[in-house]
Structure formats: structure tokens, C-alpha cells
Amino acid sequence: MDDDDYYFDESDGEYGGSSYSLEEDHGDDLNDLLVEEPIEKIWTTASVISAESLLAAQKEVLQNVMSLLLINEQQARSLLIYYRWNVQKVYDSFERKGKEPLFQEAGVVISDDRDLDILGSSTAVITCNVCFEDVAVLDATKMDCGHLFCNDCWTQNFIIRIKDGERTIRCMDTKCNAICDDVIIRNLVSRKDPCLAERFERFLLESYVEDNDNIKWCPSNPHCGNAIRVDGSNVFEVECICGFQFCFNCSLEAHSPCSCQMWKLWVQKCGDESGNTDWIIVNTKPCPKCKKLVEKNGGCNLVRCRCDQHFCWLCGGACGAEHTWSTIAGHTCNSFTQEKEMNFLAVKQRLQRYMHYFNRYMTHADSLKKENTLNENIQRKISESENKNSVIKDYSWVLDGSRQLLRSRRVLKYTYPLAFYVFGDELFKDKMTPEEKEIKQHLFEDLQQQLETNVERLSMYIEKDFYDFNDEQVMELKYQVVNLNRVVNKFCGQMYKYIEDDLLEPMKHAVHRIAPYSSGGPNMLLQPSSSSGNSGDS
Amino acid sequence: MLDVSRVQKELAECNRDTAISGVSIALHDGGSDLSRLSGTISGPVATPYEGGTFQIDIRLPSGYPFEPPKMQFVTKVWHPNISSQNGAICLDILKDQWSPALTLKTALLSLQALLSAPEPDDPQDAVVAQQYLRDHQTFMATARYWTEAFARRSSVGIEEKVQKLVEMGFPEDLVRSTLESVNGDENQALEMLCSS
Question: What molecular functions are annotated in GO for this chain (chain B) (predicted)?
Fold first, then answer.
């Protein structure tokens, strides 16, 4: 596999190939049988950083850099913000360039003396180069870079910068790249505006997330306060401890095997048209010029689109603006012509194609909702069964089956938008020859259909009220559920593999990467065990 | 809250050596609002802007000097980094490279330097920049013409003055030559015309 052509690089460019996680907390032994010959993997791991452990996680990284480069916390922070909290990059640059250039680039100045002794006694007076006033040396501050200004000017500058939301505040002198010591900033600002000083402190803390490519806030709304750290591939699905499942790359809901771009387009499309599609077909016509759908809001049959194109409402064909109430100048369309009919059919076909995928997508989305409720009831059914006078005490297979049902239902749901784009013209026009497309679509639909059939069967068994069953019936049900669980899981794995290897890979479309399949669903994260957020493992 | 004391000091300091620096600052329209100023720079020698006097509208934000002043050419000028339409300026120190330790005077001097050394790779006016790179001769001619037409202090409103004096009953030829001899000073010209 030619990685360079297909996968776009992340920051380091060291990763190639598909990502795969070994973090399968809920996977069972079956997995070993299913994924034969795993393709090259990057180890992607994820962990939760709770609001409380954010500080500790940041401190740990700071400590690392501080002890390596023998600098103080402020300097380490400036350096890390510049390198987007990528410690490895700091180390690499350090080795490649050496200490001085490393600091200089990031605007970090290491100075040995910050005392004002050279300026003489405490009664000495200097002229501040910003306000042009003479001030006592005691009322002035010298930064590490050696530039000296009066405290009033420093403070005012800091206040304006902080209000602008800046995290790295540079020295006021012309062409001075040095970043101001955040301890000084906080001290000076808190004298005048303690709230703002606190805000600045929060900025610095949040920088660990905001300026960090490996960490993102959980996009749950209302926000749970947690941040998620992912090491490895960004195209990775996680479940925060708050229960919210999302794609780490685009921060939208977990949507594999749809790629991020496809999902964004689909959401947009559905937002624009869902539910209204029927109405649209009946009540609108596409403008012959800009193809936007136009609704007739009254008047005669000469319609003017917003793009200024006039067209005939009866046939949808472009025409001039001159008309009377009953005729349009130079335009007749009462006679039947093949071409016009074809045009109209093409539009209709496009809409019908979308409707096809949309309806099936929605059906699975609805089923998913219902099965979610079902999943909640299962625990109740299990405890009822356990209290029965029976030899069968282990009902974990029901839970496993139910979880697999939800998982594969999601997969099914997202295969429809995927198919809409992969076999349509919007994103991949002319990427496949018609023959190739036909074969691939056939294979894909075959796989999809098999998955669908088995998911429905699994759903049927999971729905059964097994607490009324006798032991024999329960054993029979167990056999079916376990078997279907295995089958469905296998098909899901195959589906992902087929999509990655046969649909997306040959198109050399680096933007369309999908999160790897794991039978347990998005990688469920656990409460951080210690304050450490840097261990990488959950 | 604009730092009034600093602005006042800046004005005094800038106007002390106007003759040498070629830049000056005054309150806008002779008003009393310190946040609206009017700067003047003389076109640098050995450039197509030589001999011109360029007016610059200066607005000071309330955060000045911690935020950069807003400057815009009032006088029309043909330059890759200055919009020929509205006089907007593309100069780093007026944006992200501003430092509170810079002053209005240094900013105006930078503008003057910009007139001498255009940076067509970072253009404000794409048309002018294209011309600067592809057809330098035409660029020089146009810039010179614009300077003559819009930035000559003596030529500002000259037609108006001519018309006024002609209306008073003096022959146009005489009016023009007299005005020219006194560098466009209307009163002096009138005096001369009356006494001749």
C-alpha cells in the first residue's frame, strides 16, 4: 500500500497506514478470528482529562521540559505553547538546532539578572518609552529581554491583550519577540483587575487543550468539562466518560464508516432538505441556470430565479423576460419533446436517489433510537430472569448481543450516506469507470444487505421477552444471539475493510479516512485513575 | 481611555523638526479631538512622489498606544501598497507588528519609507502591484502623474482660484501667470493684479 499517496500527514508525518486500536475493552475472543492479517497499525490510544486533572496533566508536561532544558515554568510554558504542547517536537528542535535558537524562535529569553541595580539606587528615575513620563525605577519593570517600561504602561498593555484573548503576550518594545513572564503579568494585572488576572490564569491552563493538537474538549452540550487526549491517529472515535460519543477529528458525532467530509456534507444536506423532500419535488423546480430549487410564489408561468434567470414554470426551460399573462415571448412548450423530458427526468432521478439513501438512513436511525430504549430495559429483564428458579444464571450474552446490535445498527445507518457519496457524482465524479463502479457497488450492496438481514434477526431475538422462557428456550435463544453476535461483528469488520481497501483507498482520496472498526463501538474511556493525564492509556 | 498626555507630547515632539523629517501632525480640521489627527508627509526625493505633499487621516483607538493607530491616505496616491481607491495602507507596523514604543512620527516616517521602497509582493492594490512588476515605466509615469495631479500643494484648487479671479474681470492668461509667480497664493496674486 502506498501510504504517501493516500494518507495525509499529521503533524509529524511519521504515521502512515490505517489506524487501529488495541484498546478494546469490550471486544471478545471472537475478534481474534475476525481480523485476519491486520494491516499496518498505528497505536492510537485515548484518555480523559477531567477538569480537575487538567492542571496536573499540564504540570507534568511542564516538569518534563523544565528538567530537560533547565528553565523555569513560565519559560517552559511559552516554549510549549509555541510548539503546541508537543514535547517530542521541543526535544527534536532542541537536538537539531540547539538551545539558543530554540528559545529565540519561541520568544523565550533566558536572563540571569533581572535586578535593577545597574540603574542605581531606588530613588533613580527613568523615562518610560511608552508614556514618555519620568517614573521612579521602583515603579518600573524590566522583562527577561531587558526592556524596561513603567508598571502603568505594562499593566495597561496586558489588560488590553488579555481582553483580546491573547495567551502569549509579547514585550512592548519594537521588534522584540520576547514573551512576557506570566508571573509578572498576573502580579501587575491583579493589582488593577483581579478578575482579569484570573481569566489570564485560566487562559494559560486552557492553553494545554486549546493549543494542543492531541487534546480536544469533549463536544458534549452542555459541556461536561472533560478533555480527551488522543495519541496516534486523529481519525478515531471515542466515548467520553460523560457518555458522549464523537469523532476526534471533526468533533461531530461518531460517524464511521462515513468519512468526516462525507458526514459534514450529509448533515448539511439533510438539514437543508430532510422531511421537505416530498414537498420540494411537488412544489419546486430547479433553475435551469444555477440549479437551485425555485418555488413559485404567485403570478404567471414566467418565473425569475434569484440568479436573474427567467424560466418557464410549465417546462422548466430557460427563456427571456418578455411575456404577457398567458404567453412568454419566443417560447412554446406545449409540444412534447424527448430532450426536455430527459432533463426533467434527470432532476427527478437525482432527487429519487437521494430519497432512497435518506429513507434507509432514517429508518436505521429510528431503529437505533428504539433499540437504545430496549437496551435500557434489558437489565430489568435480566434481573427478573436471574431471580427465576433456574439453573441459568449467566445472562451476559444478552448484554453483549444488545451492545453489538446498537453498534452494528450505527454502522448500517452510516453506510447509507457513505454509499450516497461513494457511488454518486458529488465527491467522486469520474473516479471510477462505470463498469468498475457497478461491480463495486454490487459487492458493497451485497455486504450491506447481508449485514442488514443479520442485524434485523439479531434485533428480533434481543427483543424477545426471555424471562418467560423455560430453560430450553433460553438456551436456544442464547445460541442464536451468540451466533448472530459473531456473524454481525464479522460483517461489520468486513464492511469496514471493504470500504477502506476497495472503495476509498483506490481513489487516492487522502481526505476520506475513516475511524477503525472496533466491535465495542467508539473507544469508551475510563475515569482517569490518577491525576496523570499523560500516560496515554485509559 | 486614550492616553491624552502621550498624544500631546507626541504632537509637540513631532512638529519640532518638521523641516528635517518631512512629516508633521496636526489636529484634524483644526478641531480639539485628540483622537482624530491629520498627518502630512512630503514625497521622498528621487521617487515619483517627489514634490508631493500627502495628507494622511489618523484615528487613534481608545487603546492607543497599546493598539495601533488607524491611518489612511487622504491624498490619492499610485502605489502598490496603498489602495488607489480609498487610500488604505498595507504596512505591518500598523497591524500586528505595532509596538507601544512606536510613535505616530515613526509610523509616518515608515510610510515615507514605504513610498521610497514599495513592496509589490505584499500588495494592497493588485492592479498597481501588477503594473509595478510588469510595466515599470508606465507605473513610474502614472505615479508621477498622480503626484502632480493630486499631491501638489500649489495645484490644489488652482482652477478654482483662476476661475474666481477671472470672474473678477482679469484676463485668464494673466491670472494664470500671476498665480504661478506667487506659488498659487490667491491674495498675493490679487494684489499684484490690482496694482499692475
Answer: ATP binding; ubiquitin conjugating enzyme activity
